[in-house]
């Protein structure tokens, strides 16, 4: 009986890595580098939503509103829960609010201060474009408020927290890889 329960439980633990964190902290960039280095597939929840809707994120916000976008995030989470495993998934900054996040895989928070994120984004060569594709970053003061509102919630849902400030991409990737491996062993995820 116990054995049966355990084996059922092990089957439902997913091998996905779910990268969460504030807008611009580097989730997409890190996911692509991780996938290349460790030879796995990666997908991005914003990309999935954009292709399903055949519209960019700013257009979705403008035409349909934020609440509609959040429903699309939940639909995406439901699809991941049903049908995706063994994948690195980078998420939009608000995706952590879906109601089944913890069922999707090991949740890794990329962490950095608001000022550091804002400074990197706004001093990039194509800063205007980078900020324009994030509707909730259009007003830095509001974005900072949003960061402060979410800061604790991100930490609460994370299985692993990786601070990215001042670290090389290689250091970040190693921290994620080693941390996730340890957690997955503990959770009984089969490799
Ligand atoms: N490790 C890194 N080193 C240098 N620049 C980075 C790194 N991670 C992200 N960036 C830069 O920061 C910007 C935002 O990163 P991105 O991956 O799009 O963030 P997110 O997916 O979290 O919104 C990118 O345009 C990229 O140029
Ligand atoms: O934080 C948020 O609520 C959002 C973050 C964005 O993704 P990135 O974190 O990739 O910028 C995107 O999903 C949308 O603009 C909303």
UniProtKB/TrEMBL annotation:
<dbReference type="InterPro" id="IPR000623">
    <property type="entry name" value="Shikimate_kinase/TSH1"/>
</dbReference>
<comment type="function">
    <text>Catalyzes the specific phosphorylation of the 3-hydroxyl group of shikimic acid using ATP as a cosubstrate.</text>
</comment>
<keyword id="KW-0067">ATP-binding</keyword>
<keyword id="KW-0963">Cytoplasm</keyword>
<feature type="binding site">
    <location>
        <position position="150"/>
    </location>
    <ligand>
        <name>substrate</name>
    </ligand>
</feature>
<comment type="subunit">
    <text>Monomer.</text>
</comment>
<keyword id="KW-0418">Kinase</keyword>
<comment type="similarity">
    <text>Belongs to the shikimate kinase family.</text>
</comment>
<dbReference type="GO" id="GO:0009423">
    <property type="term" value="P:chorismate biosynthetic process"/>
</dbReference>
<keyword id="KW-0028">Amino-acid biosynthesis</keyword>
<feature type="binding site">
    <location>
        <position position="134"/>
    </location>
    <ligand>
        <name>ATP</name>
    </ligand>
</feature>
<dbReference type="Pfam" id="PF01202">
    <property type="entry name" value="SKI"/>
</dbReference>
<protein>
    <recommendedName>
        <fullName>Shikimate kinase</fullName>
        <ecNumber>2.7.1.71</ecNumber>
    </recommendedName>
</protein>
<dbReference type="InterPro" id="IPR027417">
    <property type="entry name" value="P-loop_NTPase"/>
</dbReference>
<dbReference type="GO" id="GO:0000287">
    <property type="term" value="F:magnesium ion binding"/>
</dbReference>
<feature type="binding site">
    <location>
        <position position="93"/>
    </location>
    <ligand>
        <name>substrate</name>
    </ligand>
</feature>
<dbReference type="GO" id="GO:0005524">
    <property type="term" value="F:ATP binding"/>
</dbReference>
<comment type="pathway">
    <text>Metabolic intermediate biosynthesis; chorismate biosynthesis; chorismate from D-erythrose 4-phosphate and phosphoenolpyruvate: step 5/7.</text>
</comment>
<dbReference type="GO" id="GO:0008652">
    <property type="term" value="P:amino acid biosynthetic process"/>
</dbReference>
<keyword id="KW-0547">Nucleotide-binding</keyword>
<dbReference type="GO" id="GO:0004765">
    <property type="term" value="F:shikimate kinase activity"/>
</dbReference>
<feature type="binding site">
    <location>
        <begin position="24"/>
        <end position="29"/>
    </location>
    <ligand>
        <name>ATP</name>
    </ligand>
</feature>
<keyword id="KW-0057">Aromatic amino acid biosynthesis</keyword>
<keyword id="KW-0808">Transferase</keyword>
<keyword id="KW-0479">Metal-binding</keyword>
<dbReference type="GO" id="GO:0009073">
    <property type="term" value="P:aromatic amino acid family biosynthetic process"/>
</dbReference>
<dbReference type="InterPro" id="IPR031322">
    <property type="entry name" value="Shikimate/glucono_kinase"/>
</dbReference>
<dbReference type="GO" id="GO:0005829">
    <property type="term" value="C:cytosol"/>
</dbReference>
<keyword id="KW-0460">Magnesium</keyword>
<feature type="binding site">
    <location>
        <position position="46"/>
    </location>
    <ligand>
        <name>substrate</name>
    </ligand>
</feature>
<feature type="binding site">
    <location>
        <position position="70"/>
    </location>
    <ligand>
        <name>substrate</name>
    </ligand>
</feature>
